[in-house]
Structures are given as C-alpha cells and as structure tokens.
Specification:
Length: 151
Amino acid sequence: MTLTRRLHQPLRGALQAIAALEALQPLAQLAARLYVAHAFFAAGLTKLHDWDTTLALFADEYHVPLLSPAAAAAAGTAGELGLSLLLALGLAGRFAAAGLSVVNAVAVISLAEIAPAALQQHQFWGSLLIGLLLWGPGRWAVDTWLLKRLG
C-alpha cells in the first residue's frame, strides 16, 4: 500500500465523520435558540415582577440613549419577553435574533460599568444570536414548518 493511500483512508474517514456532524445542526440551532431565549425571557420576567425597581434602575443605572427611562424600561421588557418567545419557537426567527441582538447591545452600552463576567455573557449571547441571524432558526423551527406548509 502506498503512502498516499495510507494517508488518504484516515483523512477520508475524518472528513466523513465531520460531515456527519452536520446532522446535529438542527439540534444545535434549537439549543442556541432556547438558551438565549431563556436568558432574555427570565430577565424580562424579573423586570415585570418588580416594576418600581425596574423604573428606578432605568432612571439611575441604565442610561439608554434617546429614550426616557420609562420608555426604555417598557421597550426593553417588551423586547425581552416578546422576542424571546418568537426566538424559542423559531417564529420570525431571524427577526427575533436581530431584535434581541439590539436589546443585548443596548444593555451593554447603557451600563456605565459592566463586570467582566457579565460582558462575557453578553458577548456569548451575541455570538449565538449572530449565528441564528446568519443561518436561520433551523429545521426545527416554526418558520421552517410554515415555509413547507405554504410553499
């Protein structure tokens, strides 16, 4: 057996194994959607649970550009709750990912000081959201089901 053939077989097997991983893509997209949606939905519920504290935080700690504290609190909470539900379902999945990307970016920008661990978490969410924005919510999404049903 030639050296080329001996090298070719393991390389071919490795490439086939990597290609087989593509079958896990819908699971990875679902996991990313649910992970990010849970984080933002929980944040929205926390804001709703104690609205007076939420308003105080937006007045004193979060300095959202161009919006009053009350408007920023309402928009942020609505975005966290509504867009999270859409993202989890994969309904208007790219729109939800884009919207939560904006919410995520505004959250980071609006805080004068953010702990390194919190910044890292926002960066992780942002990277997952960018992936969902670019590649879509996946095969296991309402969007995909609707497109098949309608098209």
